[in-house]
Amino acid sequence: MTDLPLSQPFRVASLPTRKPQRFALSPDAATRAAIAKDLEITAVRALRFEGEIRADRKNDFLLEATLTATVEQPCIVTLEPVVTKIETRVSRRYSADFTVPDAAEVEIPEEDIEPLPEVIDMGEVAVEELSLALPPYPRANGAELGEAVHAAPGEVPLTDADLKPFAGLQALKDKLGKDG
Question: What are φ and ψ of residue 37, in 5° steps?
């Protein structure tokens, strides 16, 4: 995201090292609309991101927060609006000693560790976490994908049953089992 619709930057050099820095973000309607546009969803009806960032270990910082939101997305089947309530815990460790591995295959550490930037923007973290928490395939209640049947003019269309060749063998096996 180039232009963040939501921003609350904290310069790492200015963060207190003895006590947590608390924060709370609750963007207004215009900002939520800009976030929805960036995420390519219908609406962000409500959004709150609150928590704290504190010094941890020698040169690290730990961010712990809660993201709550109510979003609206189109159903993947009917395009009807689907409203989803999201509540997720966020935990990120920023390390001054973090180095980006240069190997082709890298073992993923157990906890999320990121390089310590000069500025940690809580708005950027909130929008990123919201995008990760969105349902990838929202579906309205009762919406089901029907069977798609396609064929060239004059051809007999294939159905889902036609694409399951072993179903006929199972039926034959069941019939033979009953008869003999």
Answer: -65, -45
Q: Which residues of the chain have pLDDT under 70?
A: 1-4, 99-111, 146-150, 160-163, 165, 167, 179-180
Residue 73 lies in a domain: yes
Q: Nearest 10 degrees: CA dihedral of 81, 87, 29, 122?
A: -140
Torsion of CA 96, 97, 101, 106, to 10 degrees: -100
Residue 83 lies in a domain: yes
Residue 63 lies in a domain: yes
Beta-bridge partner residues of 119? 11
Over the Cα atoms of the chain, what is R_g? Answer: 25
C-alpha neighbours within 13 Å on the C-beta side of residue 63 = 29
pTM above 0.85, yes or no: no
108: domain range?
Answer: 9-133
Q: What is the domain count for the chain? A: 1
Residue 58 located in a structural domain: yes
Within the chain, where are the H helices? 29-39, 122-133, 165-179
